[in-house]
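My main concern about presentation is that the manuscript never shows what a single data entry looks like. The format is easy to grasp once an entry is in front of the reader. For illustration, here is how one protein appears when written out as sequence plus structure tokens:
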Amino acid sequence: MDATCVAESRILPWYALRVRSNFEMKTAAALRERGLEEFSPMYQCRSHWSDRLKLIERPLFPGYVFCRFNSSRRLHVMQAPGVVQIVRFGKDPAPVEDREIDSLRTLVRSGAPLLPHAFFHIGDRVVIERGPLAGVHGILTKFQKGYRIVVSISLLQRSVSAQLDLECVSAGPNRNWLENRLGTAIAT
């Protein structure tokens, strides 16, 4: 990409492209060949083979590649090998914030070990997967400098909370689970 294209691309927004399974690197290369700025962050992990351990690269966002382009030229992007769709809200492609991409690029350049992590909001229903609290369902809360899980007994309208490590948590049933069960709205 020449200096003019780079300067022009800095004013264009980033978009997330949904790509075929295991096509992240191929799609990123095809977009680069078309003169587009792309970003497909990777991380290294150990893979257990039958006879050895091997260090391999995997995408931080499996099934997605980020690309900077003019949305009026999206057909050019959609024709790249592996592209399934552009992530959108309604009919229009939804841009990814520059600040988020810049932060992600800084993390990748830092050389710090990176791992994908589940995306949680305070108030989400979660399940603890490992440790002494494995199998506990509750609601994620933030308390001082850490996180807690709140477990409630609806009939008694009482709750208990415990400190937890986010590494042991996965997404639980959807937030409307309790609303549907009780037939009432949950106040947040």
Summary: The helical segments are 3-9, 24-33, 74-78, 98-110, 176-182. Confidence is low (pLDDT under 50) at residues 175-188. Residues 125-182 form one domain.
